[in-house]
Amino acid sequence: MNKLFFFSMGISVCLLTACGGNGTENPAASTGKDSAAKDSATAATLPDSAAFRDVVDGQPTALYVLKNKNQATAAITNYGARLVSLLVPNKNGVMTDVVLGYDSIGKYVHQPETFFGAIVGRYGNRIAKGKFRLAGKEYTLAKNNGPNSLHGGKKGFGAVVWTAKQLNDHAVELSYTSKDGEEGYPGTLQVKVTYTLTDSNALTISYQATTDKATVLNLTNHAYFNLNGQGSGTINNHLLTLNADQYTPVDSTLIPTGKIEPVAGSPFDFRTATAIGSRIDADNIQLKYGKGYDHNFVINTMKGDTIKGGHNLVPAATVQGDASGIVMKVLTEEPGIQFYGGNFMTGSNPLKAGKKDDYRSAFCLETQHFPDSPNQPSFPSTQLKPGQTYQSTTVYQFSVK
Questions:
Q1: Nearest to residue 66, comparing CAs of 135, 140, 15?
Q2: Which region, left, alpha or beta, applies to residue 354 given φ > 0 means left and ψ of -120 to 50 means alpha?
Q3: What is the pLDDT of residues 296-320, one digit of tens each?
Q4: Is the CA virtual torsion 340, 203, 81, 215 positive or negative?
Q5: Predicted confidence band of residue 345 (pLDDT cuts 50, 70, 90)
Q6: Which of 17-31, 104-118, 143-157 has the lowest mean pLDDT?
Q7: Mean confidence (pLDDT) of the chain
Q8: Is 222 a catalytic residue?
Q9: Who's near 144: CB < 8 A, 6+ residues apart?
Q10: Contact between residue 263 and residue 247 where contact means Cβ atoms under 8 Å apart
Q11: Which of 40, 95, 294, 401 has the fewest CB atoms nearer than 10 Å to its CB?
């Protein structure tokens, strides 16, 4: 498991605000193709940084901005170590914000959808019945998703303030100490997440963690993407390719059954570029359970690209915006990737620039270890022990076509 998570995107870091204390330093319903094309004709802008200068649980929050030579821009807040905005050029050179988010800290704290762009942990995805056994002891977690625990519990890593500091002009590091027993998980965990934006238009998020007691850990980023621009309508016409011959089917509560099944001949076969919505209404029990796609895919093992630091990255997914021409490639060291098609979005959350999070107007591609691995001995292990270092790298590479 010892893996670290990276997102790389050609951008040098530019701090938007300054915020003292707590070690924080220099922070800075589907409408289709036509509306997506219209929205992409206007260059996107970042939210006001002043709306991110706030205090949550007695800790200061702020907004950090990273920008590269191509004017691609990312905005990150230390509340939940989350990605707020990601502006990349479309096929016409117009800057397009491809991630959903809010325009203030207050909305991240109080709106119903709390996962936009967040780092989720300790355990991304679901753990069955909110329980697992480790070293002969049973641990009980909060049940915040029906009968199961989701994304670390009621107050996971996306709902806490991280300590942020600028490393250099290209990176911002966020750190958090999760105490022994927090949300029911054993061990005091020291976590660091580093966002880096590169001049090749790739966004890198790197994860590193250590523990003083055996625990389980599965970190990921929960960005919601629309490559035609956030709030621009359906993502069902985006073309998706997944480098996965297999997936993990689930029960009616979206917990893996323990089986690993082939995608061939099913609506889960995205091995060649396929419109996301082309088979979403198929008569398939797995689609009924997830109300669409909300499943873990097993990434094909192959020799990947080696980046600085020795991280071996394997292609996991490619998505192309149908109106914008923006292409996003996902490379990772993780064994799985959760594809979620926005099935539970209701338009009830006010996004940046007055947009709404309408039904299936965004998708998520969360690189990860498998859901419920602590209870599934045949799945790749998510155990982290004292003396080990968790490290993982994932890259979201952007281009146009």
A1: 15
A2: left
A3: 999 998 655 544 444 689 999 999 9
A4: positive
A5: very high
A6: 17-31
A7: 90
A8: yes
A9: 150, 151, 153, 154
A10: yes
A11: 401
CA distances from 13 to 54, 221, 226, 265, 399 (A): 21, 19, 24, 45, 20
Element of type H or E holding 35: helix 32-40
- Structural contact between residues 207 and 196, judged by C-beta atoms closer than 8 angstroms: no
Residue at 39: amino acid letter: D
Strand, coil or helix: 105: helix
Query: Which residue out of 113, 182, 333, 366 is catalytically annotated?
Result: 366
Amino acid code (one letter) for 210: T
Write down the pTM of the prediction.
Answer: 0.89
Checking if the pLDDT of 8 tops 50, the result is no
Residue (of 323, 289, 262, 293) closest to 94 by Cα position = 323
Q: How far is CA 137 from the centre of its chain?
A: 30
Is 110 annotated in the active site? no
The HSE-up count of residue 324 (CA atoms within 13 Å, CB side) is 38
Closest CA to 82 of 55, 52, 58: 52
Q: How far apart are CA 27 and CA 54, in angstroms?
A: 12
- Compute, in degrees rounded to 10, the torsion defined by CA atoms 379, 380, 386, 391: -140
Does position 18 have pLDDT exceeding 60, yes or no? Answer: no
Residue 241: CB partners within 8 Å, gap ≥ 6?
270, 271, 272, 273, 274, 317, 318, 319
Tokens for 343, please give them: 């099935």
- The amino acid sitting at 72 is A
Q: Which residues are paired to 83 by β-bridges?
A: 76
Of 170, 182, 183, 222, the catalytic one is 222
